[in-house]
């Protein structure tokens, strides 16, 4: 029996669910399950559980495993479930093994906590992580992790490492990475993802490099809008894509940039505005200002009108 790789299974809008909490701050499994189920039913191509939007940094190891297991149960094999892992190598290994035990299909390796490392140190970190689990690994470059083309080639040649999610946004560097891997590691099944916040805004530029996968925080609270935009890009419907960029995504990014941590808390607020109480973000993140919530509600309404809902 041939096992289909994670890289081959990834397609469509990539769904990064928020993690649901009760009013007292404790995990809310039922709301989380409902959130994941709704995303899958709305057409998510994959579920990335307990990653940045899911407040990985704020979860206990037990909460992490619970959420990954719930996502796996809800997916029921229909779409792959990829779990976050991070911190230093010791904890990253623990989270990776926990995700594997919970039934995840892959891992998204968040940047190592706090430190800035040399390229050979980063390579050692990800190589060791990939060797410790049977799950395919996607490396997330952002903040303190920026990979050179040589390091990317070494990662592509490493068994178990299947792609890079880019949160740096240096398209010149990414083009060099893609070219180097294509030249120096031909035949390797290696995928690239646009991982910038509100990735839809920059996705037309990423598509020009051949990068068709991207994370969609908007899918968490407005899958109708996210799905319409994804379809417009895939079919070359530039008029619809531009209409959504101009009328929804650009204003959303401008709103997002008005508060620290809004890349997470504004998304979670959007889920609540659409009728599912997933609770508030955990400290040190803070809730959006009331005026910003009013703007978000109006933006969602405008976006839904733009896609005919």
UniProtKB/TrEMBL annotation:
Enzyme class: lyase
UniProt-listed InterPro entries: Aldolase_TIM, DapA-like, Dehydro-deoxyglucarate_dehyd
Involved pathway(s): Carbohydrate acid metabolism; D-glucarate degradation; 2,5-dioxopentanoate from D-glucarate: step 2/2
Reactions the enzyme catalyzes: 5-dehydro-4-deoxy-D-glucarate + H(+) = 2,5-dioxopentanoate + CO2 + H2O
Keywords for this protein: Lyase
Enzyme Commission no: 4.2.1.41
One Pfam family it belongs to: DHDPS
Superkingdom assignment: Bacteria
Family assignment from sequence similarity: Belongs to the DapA family.
NCBIfam families, sorted: PRK03620.1 (NF002958)
Protein name per Swiss-Prot or TrEMBL: Probable 5-dehydro-4-deoxyglucarate dehydratase
The organism of origin for this protein: Streptomyces carpaticus
């Amino acid at each position: 029996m041939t096992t289909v790789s994670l890289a081959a299974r990834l397609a469509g809008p990539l769904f990064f669910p928020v993690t649901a909490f009760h009013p007292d701050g404790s995990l809310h499994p039922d709301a989380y399950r409902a959130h994941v189920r709704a995303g899958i039913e709305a057409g998510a191509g994959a579920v990335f559980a307990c990653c940045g939007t899911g407040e990985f940094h704020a979860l206990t190891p037990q909460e992490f495993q619970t959420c990954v297991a719930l996502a796996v149960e809800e997916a029921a094999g229909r779409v792959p479930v990829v779990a976050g892992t991070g911190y230093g190598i010791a904890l990253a290994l623990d989270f990776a093994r926990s995700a594997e035990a919970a039934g995840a299909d892959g891992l998204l390796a968040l940047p190592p906590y706090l430190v800035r490392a040399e390229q050979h140190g980063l390579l050692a970190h990800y190589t060791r992580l990939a060797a410790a689990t049977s799950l395919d690994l996607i490396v997330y470059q952002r903040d303190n992790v920026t990979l050179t083309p040589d390091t990317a080639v070494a990662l592509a040649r490493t068994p178990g490492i299947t792609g890079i999610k880019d949160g740096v946004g240096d398209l010149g560097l990414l083009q060099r990475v893609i070219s180097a891997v294509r030249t120096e590691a031909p035949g390797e099944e290696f995928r690239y993802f646009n991982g910038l916040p509100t990735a839809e805004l920059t996705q037309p530029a990423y598509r020009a490099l051949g990068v068709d996968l991207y994370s969609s925080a908007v899918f968490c609270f407005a899958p109708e809008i996210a799905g319409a935009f994804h379809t417009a890009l895939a079919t070359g419907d530039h008029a619809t894509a531009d209409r959504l960029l101009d009328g929804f995504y650009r204003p959303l990014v401008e709103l997002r940039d008005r508060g620290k941590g809004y890349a997470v808390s504004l998304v979670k607020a959007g889920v609540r505005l659409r009728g599912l109480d997933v609770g508030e973000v955990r400290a040190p993140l803070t809730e959006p200002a009331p005026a910003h919530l009013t703007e978000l509600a109006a933006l969602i309404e405008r976006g839904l009108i733009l896609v005919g809902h």
